[in-house]
């Protein structure tokens, strides 16, 4: 049976594959370094601070990302980002130092953001509206698969601390080579970006159109970074083994993989906002349940699996929701702000999680995630879609 694959389909699958490898490296890095530092006697708040380096890198580079994307196109931005990630991962074994690893994670944040910004903007630009939820869900699905497999490398630290870093770096280099098969393309150029000031004006316009769509990526960033960066520390302190922690994180990630595509397709039919409201509320209930079952490994595994099924799609659904609301010429800016929102949540997640673990006793760590999900649900619930025309008028007046 002959299978015909168009150039657009080949481009799509290469992009989501490299995103999957990026997810793998991120999924490995957070719990791996958290465990290494915990075993070395680093405090949980400093552990969380180190985990924020990647997201500080995202924030630092964000104002400077859109101009090179519009000038040079998608492919060079993704290639440079992928190379920076692969090289940084390979440098971790050279020197075990808090601040050296902090700087490497900063560069990984910059590289990952370039890679994801280029890939997700490219995918949203060529995806038809009736398949947008599906395509972005597949993007999230591949990232989720990689992110789920990543923590399973954490037990390799018992063999050699350098081994997980080397394996991840090699895999990133292999995926990076496939990017050279792509033909470069450019976003719509209805408005030239020629200064940082103009970039911030576009940020303001994009915010007016789609501020509510940036909340799910922010919440997912908080959840993902806190769960992978702080939970391993909390787990070790409630006497869970490294292997058990890896399995629990794997269960959450697998839950997200199982429902990533169905929720994306469902959002194409029922509307992004309706699906987001449902998963945020049910996710709040799942993490609240987990807080009562944390001393039962089976119960906690089931709770985290269901939580992953529900909230594992918040980032991809947020991007799809943003794309529905944003004019096509502002899609790069909207995607950039989704990345900024994700990084802000990711900055807050591990550091607040570390402070919570260090200073609040006899209260389940999972409650901090439950409270965050409830806040997002209430904000989205009380947001009135019909008022959005006012934001469009305000945005038009800024042009």
Short description:
The protein is mainly α and 399 residues long. The protein is 77% helix and 0% strand.
Shape descriptor: globular
Please describe the biggest sheet, giving its number of strands, its sense, and whether it closes into a barrel. none
Q: Give the helix level as a range of percent.
A: over 70%
Number of strands: 0
- Give the low-confidence spans: 386-392, 394-399
The amount of beta strand, in percent, is under 5%
N-end to C-end Cα span:
53 Å
- What oligomeric state do the depicted chains represent? single chain
What is the averaged pLDDT score? 83
How many helices? The count is 18
Alpha carbon gyration radius: 20 Å
Which class best fits the helix and strand makeup? mainly alpha
The helix/strand order is HHHHHHHHHHHHHHHHHH
What does this structure look like?
The structure is a single chain. This protein has 399 residues and is mainly alpha-helical. The protein contains 18 helices and no strands. It has helices at 7-39, 44-51, 53-61, 66-72, 74-91, 98-126, 132-149, 162-178, 196-210, 215-229, 231-237, 242-270, 272-292, 297-311, 314-325, 331-359, 366-382, 388-397. Helix 1 (7-39) runs antiparallel to helix 8 (162-178) and helix 4 (66-72) crosses helix 5 (74-91). The protein is globular, with a radius of gyration of 20 Å. The model is unreliable at 386-392 and 394-399 (pLDDT under 50).
């Amino acid at each position: 049976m002959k299978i015909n694959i168009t150039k657009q389909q080949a481009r799509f699958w290469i992009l989501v594959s490299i995103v999957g490898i990026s997810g793998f490296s991120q999924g490995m890095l957070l719990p791996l370094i958290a465990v290494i530092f915990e075993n070395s006697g680093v405090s949980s708040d400093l552990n969380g601070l180190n985990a924020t380096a990647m997201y500080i890198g995202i924030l630092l580079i964000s104002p400077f990302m859109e101009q090179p994307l519009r000038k040079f196109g998608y492919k060079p931005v993704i290639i440079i980002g992928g190379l920076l990630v692969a090289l940084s991962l390979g440098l971790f074994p050279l020197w075990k130092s808090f601040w050296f690893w902090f700087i490497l994670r900063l560069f990984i944040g910059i590289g990952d953001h370039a890679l994801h910004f280029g890939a997700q903007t490219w995918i949203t630009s060529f995806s038809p509206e009736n398949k947008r939820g599906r395509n972005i869900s597949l993007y999230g699905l591949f990232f989720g698969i990689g992110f789920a497999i990543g923590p399973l490398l954490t037990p390799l630290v018992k063999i050699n601390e350098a081994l997980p870093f080397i394996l991840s770096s090699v895999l990133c280099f292999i995926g990076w080579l496939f990017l050279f098969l792509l033909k470069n393309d450019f976003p719509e150029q209805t408005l030239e970006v020629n200064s940082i000031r103009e970039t911030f004006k576009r940020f303001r316009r994009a915010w007016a159109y789609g501020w509510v769509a940036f909340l799910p990526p922010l919440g997912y960033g908080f959840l993902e970074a806190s769960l992978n960066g702080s939970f391993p520390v909390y787990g070790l302190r409630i006497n869970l083994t490294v292997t058990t922690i890896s399995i629990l994180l794997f269960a959450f990630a697998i839950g997200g993989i199982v429902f990533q595509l169905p929720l994306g397709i469902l959002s194409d039919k029922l509307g992004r906002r309706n699906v987001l409201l449902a998963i945020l509320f049910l996710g709040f209930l799942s993490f609240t349940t987990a807080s009562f079952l944390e001393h039962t490994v089976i119960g906690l595994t089931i709770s985290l699996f269901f939580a992953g099924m529900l909230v594992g799609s918040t980032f991809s659904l947020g991007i799809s929701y943003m794309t529905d609301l944003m004019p096509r010429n502002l899609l790069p800016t909207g995607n950039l702000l989704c990345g900024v929102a994700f990084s802000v949540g990711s900055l807050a997640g591990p550091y607040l999680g570390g402070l919570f673990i260090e200073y609040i006793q006899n209260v389940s760590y999972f409650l901090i995630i439950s409270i965050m999900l409830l806040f997002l649900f209430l904000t989205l619930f009380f947001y009135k879609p019909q008022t959005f025309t006012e934001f469009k008028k305000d945005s038009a007046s800024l042009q």
